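Complex record, two chains
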Amino acid sequence: MTTLLFVLGSIAAIVSALSVVTRRNPVHSALSLIVCLLSVALLFLLLGAQFVAAIQVIVYAGAIVVLFLFVVMLLNVKDESAVFHSGIAQKLAALALVFVILVQVVLVAVAGATWLGKEQWLAATGLSFGTVQSVGRELFARYLFQFEVVSVLLLVAIVGAVTLVKKKQ
Amino acid sequence: MGVTVSQYLAVSALLFAIGVAGVLLRRNMLVVLMSVELMLNAANLAFVTFARMLGGVEGQVIVLFVMAVAAAEVAVGLAIVLVVFRTGETTNVEDVSSMKW
């Protein structure tokens, strides 16, 4: 059952991610992004991280993508004439770079996981792994300072966005 | 459980590579920002996978931080897109070259 859900979730995530990159209309890209984020939330649930999955749905799919859609509607962007504008040499160079990055990430991640000698799951994760309680205790005890820094960062982002968009008098 | 760590990490790597491809190949600023979101999301998946593998919750705390940074980045990025569109009526990254040497 878990394997089936994993296969379905990862296929949905990858197909919708490809769709984000290849749609001509930005609205379609944003809607595919929602599907991708929800599939990754499913993968989070399968990993046992319930709180992160809920935050993923609320913050990412709920707030960030709605912001994207809002801006796309506000700008009234037309469909692009072509998905990829750049020349053939630039395209080939970009694809080669993507391939190199993919190989590197796979090597580092998969080889690292095997090197640690923990290819299978640890049995001792228990029920408290992804609950609000355990994550919150860690967040507000050991990572309190970082939490405050992130809140300042959000404040700076709000002020920056408002200042950028404000019309000159 | 039948699914292994490397399978989750492979999905994460694929999502990240698709995001890189979007940033490098697309010329629409909005889609480039969405591709950056894809990459951040792939990193989040790797964080949660490693947290699960090592049995700690630190990885999930980092994921919350990444999400906050992503929200800040999208807010500022979309504000910049809005200003660029207001001045030049374009969302194409190649039309924004006044700061290019």
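Note: The first helix of chain B runs from residue 5 to 25.
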